[in-house]
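Appendix B: complex inputs.
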Amino acid sequence: MSLLDVENLRVSFDTSQGVVEAVRGISFSLGQERLGIVGESGSGKSMTGRAILRLVRPPGRVEADRIALEGQDLQSLGERQMRKVRGRRISMVMQDPKFSLNPVMTVGEQIMEAYLLHARDSRRAARRKALEMLEAVAIRDPERVMKAYPHEVSGGMGQRIMIAMMLIPDPRILIADEPTSALDVSVQRKVLSIMDGLVRDRGMGLIFISHDLNLVSEFCDRVLIMYAGRIVETCDAARLHEARHPYTRGLLNSLPRLDAPRARLEVLARDPAWAEGG
Amino acid sequence: MLEVDGMNVWFGAGATHVDAVQGASFFVGRGESFGLVGESGSGKSTILRAITGLAPGWSGRVEVDGKPVYRDRRDRAFHKRVQMVFQDPYASLHPRHSVDRVLSETLRLHGMDAIDRRVPQLLEDVGLGPKFRFRYPHQLSGGQRQRVAIARALAGEPELLLLDEPTSALDVSVQAEILNLLADLRGERGLTYVMVSHDLAVVGHLCQRLAVMQSGRIVEMLDVEQLRRGRAEHPYSRALIAASVSGGRTARAAE
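Resulting structure:
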């Protein structure tokens, strides 16, 4: 059975200029795999992640024929029950640790809180779990980091702390929305391989949302390419570079490459038909 | 065109003193494009800011077109000759000034005449039509804003453009458009570029030579051929190159 099934998901916003549809009827399912969602700004990739966790705020509206987590319909759940799903069964890592960590709480307190919210356990056990988790995300001196405040750690460390916090309740699915875009390249790889290892060891499903085609093709099993709120193409991540859809091809060709220099970069000619089809 | 010799840049004083750049020296010829690469905090943007006077605490020698740049005073001629384009076009344009106001004010500051004729010309030069003239920044996309920022930099007809991560806030397809625009402008006007970027592929595309920076120091100078062949000697440059070609490698394997 797949971990997550999404059928005909729509996210729309009522604005003074009419209804804006950010996500326009997409369907996909997620197994114990790493699924990448790529697209440009405004393609609806982040909204998809948020809609699954019902984190789209009004005036945004989420509609779907079905959003099922391990067979259980998430749409029928009340807000209280939904709160038990968030973090415990599906958790989310966002782009910038600066905005996701509580600035006036120590790192240790935050990670322990994430654990104790969902587990009936003592503070002593929570502390031990938190230390283990920090070690699992390759933080060298976890005792010291537990006592630190978010502004005292680097961006890469902050993002690893976020991952530790999101994985401590042992969720089935992790949604990572541009988890490494705020980080330097060398740190990026390190954070990704840590996340990758943990997701694999625990047999979790990962939804990896990114604008970076190369990163997605390296770190995922399967990729959905979104354009204007629709999925225009689905392909094996390793074969992303053989993608057929002109939008995907255009994105790939617009990247400058060290190994294939060109005088001019190809510019994407957007075809209105892409927004309609799919 | 630009010579930087033994530049040190620092922030703060006493207990908060931080050395952001230490002993940076490089030379950029007229019409050449030079890249500064490195990670956040390596001091690459700080060098540009020191040249333009946005980071006042610096020492060393800077010459533009053979004329020394002083620490605390830059004349109108300097700002006419040297202009900067910033990373985030959402932050570098005044939200309540229309494109027309941004460009005509800049033209006036540079002592230009025929402003009413020059504004549409500037817009055309950066690939924006006349209909953009009376728009406000919030009515523009990220790529259009960056074009306006480039138009503003071009207003005084500069010779040297300092580009601070000009495409890193943009989508890849828009990045390609802006990089093509920068290449066209360079060809038409014989501009000299100094570009700061963390993306080696972008620097390799636009620049002929580059300096790799780490913790405030230039650790290696490379030309684009050495970069493409991965012929760097310093372990840090090698690591940077390895991190940025791995994507290209999967591409090649798939082809």
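The radius of gyration of chain B is 19 Å.
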